[in-house]
Design goal:
3-stranded antiparallel sheet, mainly beta, 3 helices, 7-stranded antiparallel sheet, about 15% helix
């Protein structure tokens, strides 16, 4: 084990955001784009904090930032599609992470059963409705009820690890 933070007699020391980001960056995660279709057209955002939540009932969860301008639009629509990005989707990840741009410019997609966009070539998609929402610090924790889903077994997922896409091959396995 490497260096640890020990609490003193007066309780634990505050955790600095940069240190937390660095340490938790050791956990590889997939990248998803949450999409929906509203009266003004398609909306979406990139999200790294996604996971399966429950099989019975079928639920997934993700956590948009409280500063997101897109999540309130999707919340209002009430239904969304989780697009699990494939290994060659770094540009899609970056495009949907930007604010104030046409995120769908040049992006091909088809409608999920609920009408939300399924981005072309994704590794998997999960069509949902908003089930619950909870406060989570500087993020919101969203539970979505799964209504339909699909996967392309030939498409490996895009991973994010230690601040970059992919898993660093220099990390030695012990």
């Amino acid at each position: 084990m490497s260096a640890r933070t020990h609490s003193g007699a007066h309780g634990p020391a505050p955790i600095e955001a940069a240190r937390m980001r660095d340490v938790l960056g050791h956990f590889a995660s997939g990248i998803v784009v949450i999409t929906a279709i509203g009266s003004d057209g398609p909306v979406g955002f990139t999200c790294q904090s996604f996971s399966s939540l429950s099989l019975d009932p079928p639920l997934v969860s993700f956590s948009p930032s409280r500063t997101s301008s897109t999540w309130p639009k999707i919340r209002e629509i009430g239904r969304f599609c989780v697009n699990v990005l494939a290994v060659d989707h770094e540009e899609l990840s970056a495009a949907f992470a930007r604010s104030g741009t046409d995120k769908y410019a040049g992006v091909r997609w088809s409608a999920s059963p609920s009408g939300a966009p399924i981005l072309d070539g994704v590794a998997a998609w999960i069509d949902c409705t908003v089930e619950h929402e909870y406060p989570g610090g500087d993020h919101t924790i969203v539970a979505g009820r799964v209504h339909d889903l699909g996967a392309d077994e030939t498409r490996p997922p895009l991973l994010f690890h230690r601040g970059t896409y992919g898993v660093n091959s220099a990390v030695a396995v012990r």
